[in-house]
């Protein structure tokens, strides 16, 4: 239980540190602290369900609600291909990591038991 608590706190703090390197207004100290609130919910959701894909969906839903209130929607009318490529690569890496690291480790533990 202690490791779950420490893992949650570390992930929340690292998310805040990440936002300090973000663009305004998301890098302002008050905004960083505010943005850490949904990460608390995301961490709790992950540690209860232990399902990474659902956690990513919940976190992105919360982020979409927060970000959509502070952006110029007309700026999103043209596709941003570099961002789409980075998103695609991220999803591929996540799925590959899940298949070759997490699921393989679970399968090896079941075979040893």
Structural description of this entry:
The chain is an all-alpha fold and 113 residues long. It has two domains: 73 residues, no CATH class; 35 residues. Helices cover 79% and strands 0% of the residues. It has four helices and no strands. Helix 1 packs antiparallel against helix 2. The two termini are 24 Å apart. The mean pLDDT is 82.
Low-confidence stretches: none
Overall strand count:
0
The radius of gyration is 17 Å
Give the ordered list of helices and strands: HHHH
Shape: globular
- Helical element count? 4
How many structural domains? Answer: 2
CA-CA gap between termini? 24 Å
Structural class: mainly alpha
Percentage of residues in helical conformation: over 70%
Q: Report the β-strand fraction as a percent range.
A: under 5%
How do you describe this structure in short?
With 113 residues, the protein is mainly α. The chain has four helices and no strands. It has helices spanning 2-20, 29-49, 52-68, 81-112.
Q: Keyphrases for this structure?
A:
113 residues, mainly alpha, 4 helices
What is the topological layout?
Blueprint (H helix, E strand, L loop, with lengths): L1 H19 L8 H21 L2 H17 L12 H32 L1
Helix pairs in contact: 1-2, 2-3
């Amino acid at each position: 239980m202690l490791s779950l608590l420490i893992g949650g706190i570390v992930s929340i703090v690292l998310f805040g540190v990440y936002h300090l390197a973000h663009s305004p207004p998301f890098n302002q100290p008050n905004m960083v602290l505010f943005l850490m609130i949904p990460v608390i919910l995301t961490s709790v959701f992950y540690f209860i369900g232990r399902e990474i894909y659902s956690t990513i969906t919940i976190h992105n839903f919360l982020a979409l609600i927060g970000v959509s209130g502070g952006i110029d929607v007309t700026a999103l009318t043209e596709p941003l291909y570099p961002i789409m490529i980075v998103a695609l690569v991220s999803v591929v890496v996540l799925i590959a990591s899940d298949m070759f690291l997490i699921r393989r480790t679970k399968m090896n533990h079941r075979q040893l038991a």
